[in-house]
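Journal club prep — side note

Before the paper discussion, L.F. wants everyone to see what a predicted structure for a comparable chain looks like in token form. Sequence:
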Amino acid sequence: MKKFPESLVAHKWLDGLRGLEIGPSAHNPFGLDTRNVGLKDDIYHQEQVELVGEAAPLEILAEADSIPIPSESEDFVLSSHVIEHCPNFLKTLFEWYRIIKPGGFLFVITPQPDASPSDRGKPLTEWDHLVEDYVLNMTSDLELGAGRFLHCHYNIF
């Protein structure tokens, strides 16, 4: 597999700015001024190497909902095919919003509801479920039925 082309839409809005990319992938580069945030994962690392011969580097080791950087310090947060892997959707969005400077951008790409074979036929996640996860402070340890953390989708959009 070759690398996907860089997103023209992302370049339109984010060129000339500095931000974070949550969960980068070597096969889907954006070519923007970012620091990469994520967790080391041997399976995902190996998948990237097998696909394109390299894995995206991680500059900040952190979960998506708890990033150790100052508030209002970045022009944007970019996330492609990551938010569905976060057990607490609202906590994650609040964290990303905390990081963005006033007037900054949150650029999120989510997969189609049936993109993953394991998601086919599942209903879209409803708002009440997202709110309940936030109120209960849902974590991967509490929602074991979803599958292996980093390799499962907690929500379908």
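L.F.'s comment for the group: The chain has a mean pLDDT of 95. Keep this in mind when we get to the figures.
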